[in-house]
Amino acid sequence: MNLDMTTLVAILAMAVVTYLTRIAGLFVADRLVLTGRAKAAFDAIPPAVLVAVIAPTALTTGWAEAIAAAITAMVAFRLPLLGTVAVGVVAVVVLRNVI
Amino acid sequence: MDQASPFVSTPRRDIQAGLRDIAPVAVAALPIGLLFGAIAAAKGMSPLEVTLMSALVFAGGAQFAAIETWISPAPILTLAFATLLINARHVLMGASLTPKVRMSRVQTVLAYFFLTDEAWALSERRALERPVTGAYWFAMAVVLWANWTLSSTIGAILGSFLGDPERIGADFAFTALFIGLVAGFGKSRVTLVTVAVSAGVAALVHYFIGAPWHVASGALAGIAAAYLAAPEEARS
């Protein structure tokens, strides 16, 4: 169980930066009163961020991932979360073996 | 305490709801934690270092990005900056969630240590029907945090014994999970435009420029698209 000093400092730096991003929203929320298009933009934050994180894996990794992502998206509206994940994982394994 | 109606929120009910909502997320995150630990160990991190990183940083995207570019000695400023870029979305998430959370300021400052994409997405969904209480939040948060810290530690210890994660599709669980979470926001015209623009821009930026720039640029493009796609007097 070794703990490198530089690694520890790097981990602590990442932790502090991450925590600051987590609580920063708390202090700007008071000043955000939104209507109309601004509210639509604000409400779009969740799907926009989630999609941006996974887009490279889903779209530009390969055909197996792209098709599996499309299948997952189709069942996502009908199945609970865990079912959606199961379908996605099975689809990608099958497709990687087929393609 | 009392036989409350389904509309009354009690801590016990909220804890149950939190556990019920987070269970599928925790199951989906389990292979991702194992995967993270195994990759980190392969890059030369000790199990103790993996445990500390997962427990203190507790942000999958930033941790994977850090491990992807891991060298020894660790480039502290580079890692901190990449972490800031990837986690900048937390600011928007916290600002969006804060008016819907029923906790004191001090409680919220503590609670937001556990702010993750998943806990936030589930809370936003719950907030459509009722306020997010501390009982609901901490039930979710502690399960997800313990799950992530333990699974990545186990992954680091098992290391190469897991074999190739791609063979069992574990690497895709994260993607499938996020697709499921996005579907929870419905398929209104504005949402579909947001998703299409965000996905397109993120994929292009990742392809031509590289990580982690795709997260901020894709998200901002999607948000701008929603602004333009919404009518001037948008209802929501």
Task: Please describe what this structure looks like.
The complex is a heterodimer of chains A (99) and B (236). Chain A is built from five helices and no strands. The N and C termini of chain A lie far apart (42 Å). The mean pLDDT of chain A is 89. Chain A is flat and about 50 Å long. With 99 residues, chain A is mostly helical. Helices cover 81% and strands 0% of the residues of chain A. In chain A, helix 3 packs antiparallel against helix 4 and helix 4 (63-76) runs antiparallel to helix 5 (81-98). With 236 residues, chain B is mostly helical. In chain B, 69% of the residues lie in helices and 2% in strands. Chain B contains eleven helices and two strands, in the order αααααβααβαααα. Chain B has helices at residues 11-42, 47-56, 60-68, 76-87, 89-97, 105-111, 117-127, 134-158, 173-183, 189-208, 213-229; strands spanning 101-102, 132-133. Chain B has a two-stranded parallel sheet with strand order 1-2. The model of chain B has no long low-confidence stretch (mean pLDDT 86). Chains A and B meet through helix 1, helix 2, helix 3, helix 4 and helix 5 of A and helix 1, helix 2, helix 3, helix 4 and helix 5 of B.
Structural class call of chain A reads: mainly alpha
Mean pLDDT of chain B: 86
Spatial order of the strands in the main sheet of chain B? 1-2
- The number of strands of chain B is 2
**Rg of chain B (CA only):** 19 Å
Keywords (chain A): Membrane, Transmembrane, Transmembrane helix
Protein name (chain A): Putative membrane protein
Pfam families (chain A): AzlD (PF05437)
Transmembrane segments (chain A): 6-28, 40-60, 66-95
Question: What is the fold's blueprint, element by element?
Answer:
The complex is a heterodimer of chains A (99) and B (236).
Chain A: H1 5-28, H2 36-43, H3 45-60, H4 63-76, H5 81-98
Chain B: H1 11-42, H2 47-56, H3 60-68, H4 76-87, H5 89-97, E1 101-102, H6 105-111, H7 117-127, E2 132-133, H8 134-158, H9 173-183, H10 189-208, H11 213-229
Parallel strand pairs in B: 1-2
Helix pairs in contact in B: 1-3, 1-8, 2-8, 3-4, 5-7, 10-11
